[in-house]
User: Fold this.
Amino acid sequence: MKYEEKIDLVPLWHKSTLSLEEATAYSGIGRHTLAELADDPNCDFIMWVGRKRLFKRKKLDEWIERTYSV
Assistant:
């Protein structure tokens, strides 16, 4: 089994960080909107690994809970 196939076996709600595509599928928020939110320097649910942005799933959940509209 390839590494990529093993990663796909882990459900999104068990991962601690999500890629942009995974965060889009997980949250139901559009890719463009999430990318704009992630570019904000005050965004606390983003972790940068080099040029790759990862969404902290628990912090993203908390942000969604307290946000009225996007």
Summary: Helices lie at 3-8, 20-27, 31-39, 57-66.
